[in-house]
Design a protein that fits this description.
It is a single chain. By secondary structure, this protein is mainly alpha-helical. The protein has one domain. Helix content is 74%, strand content 0%. The protein is globular and about 35 Å long.
């Protein structure tokens, strides 16, 4: 994962405190801003990776982690980054 500046870490922490609807709206805006700025090769690679991940989930090979645990881990990482 690329290194996040303190400003980005603070923005992420604030974003994670938003409601689900607000986070979805923010994510959609950020993703929409990137559309058209990704090369076709990168887009194809992501599509292939998404397919592999869906197949791993469907077959039971992938281990999932509840969102509450992921959120807890990420917030702990943010606190340690400061």
């Amino acid at each position: 994962m690329p290194h996040m500046t303190p400003e980005v870490s603070k923005l992420l922490e604030q974003a994670l405190a938003l409601s689900l609807e607000e986070r979805e709206a923010l994510a959609n805006c950020l993703i929409s801003n990137l559309i058209g700025k990704v090369s076709p090769e990168v887009e194809a690679a992501w599509e292939a990776e998404i397919g592999r991940r869906i197949q791993a989930l469907d077959s039971g090979r992938a281990k999932t982690i509840p969102w509450s645990e992921v959120r807890k881990r990420n917030l702990a990482k943010l606190r340690h980054a400061h």
